[in-house]
Amino acid sequence: MDNCLFCKIAAGTIPSTKVYEDEMVYAFRDIAPQAPVHILLIPKKHISGWSAVTEESDALLAHLMRTAAVIAAQEGLQDGYRIVSNCGENACQSVPHLHLHILGGQKLPDRMA
Ligand code: AMP
Questions:
Q1: Residue 84: helix, strand or coil by DSSP?
Q2: Phi, psi (5° rounding) for residue 72?
C-alpha cells in the first residue's frame, strides 16, 4: 500500500534495522524499544490488522508465527520472550499494518494489561 509506513519499511524506502527477511515476511528493530530486545515482525503483504485477516492468509500467518520463534532463537531469547500484537483502537494499535512485537532480554512484567 502506497501510504503505509511498514510497507515502505519492508520495501526499503524507509530505513530500518533489519533482523530477518524472506519472501513473505520482514523483521526489524522497534524504533522505541520497550525491552532490551524489541523486534517487529510483519508480513510483506499489506494487511491492516487482525480484523482484516481472511482464510486466504492462513499460510502467511502460520509462517509469520513460526518465524517469530525462529527470530527469538536467533536473538538468543532461550530464557523466554513475549509475542504481542495490538489490534484496533482499544489495544492502541498505532500502525495499521499487521505486526507482531517480539519482546525479551529481561524478565517481563507478569501482567499483560
Ligand atoms: P503498535 O502500537 O502496536 O501499532 O506498534 C507500532 C510500533 O511501531 C511501535 O512500537 C513503534 O515504536 C514502532 N515504530 C513506529 N515507527 C517505526 C519506525 N520507523 N521504525 C521502527 N519502529 C517503528
A1: strand
A2: -60, -40
Distance CA 55, CA 12 (A): 28
CATH class for the domain made up of 5-96: alpha beta
Q: Which of 40, 47, 93 most suits a substitution to test ligand 1, by most atoms within 8 Å of the C-beta?
A: 40
State the Cα–Cα distance between residues 4 and 14, nearest whole angstrom.
11
What does DSSP assign to residue 66? H
Confidence of residue 34 (pLDDT cuts 50, 70, 90): very high
Q: How far apart are CA 42 and CA 65, in angstroms?
A: 10
Residue appearing with cell numbers 522497534: 30
- In this prediction, residue 17 carries a pLDDT of 98
* pTM score of the predicted model: 0.98
Spacing, Cα 62 to ligand 1 middle (Å): 22
